[in-house]
Design brief:
The chain folds into two domains: 51 residues; 47 residues, no CATH class. 54% of the residues lie in helices and 19% in strands. It contains three helices and six strands. It has a three-stranded antiparallel sheet with strand order 1-2-3. It has a three-stranded antiparallel sheet with strand order 4-5-6, with no helix packed on it. Strand 1 and strand 2 form a beta hairpin. The longest helix is centred in the middle third of the chain and has 40 residues.
Amino acid sequence: MGIFDELKSVGSVLREADKIEQYQLILDVQAKLLDMQKKIADLEVENKALKDEINIKKNLVHRAEVYYLIDGDKEDGPFCTMCYDTKKLLVRLKNSMDERKICPNCKILFCYK
């Protein structure tokens, strides 16, 4: 039985025994636990985002005016330097009409070999 189920059970007993003051305390504890659960979930999301950011910084390589993600012998990219440097966005460059690459986000053209 989880803590919320136990609190609900205790709350029911207190309510039936007409112990309103104690029942209100149980409701307050439940509200605080729910708030703590939300804070923990928010911290887990933030923790994952920070770990992802560290992993990207560790594997991001600047070469020929663009960024690449290097993971062992795997290379991913190229990515826009402007978007990452200013907004921390990894935006994959696309082919333009000629041999250049273009960022679909900021529209910068990259000429590199």
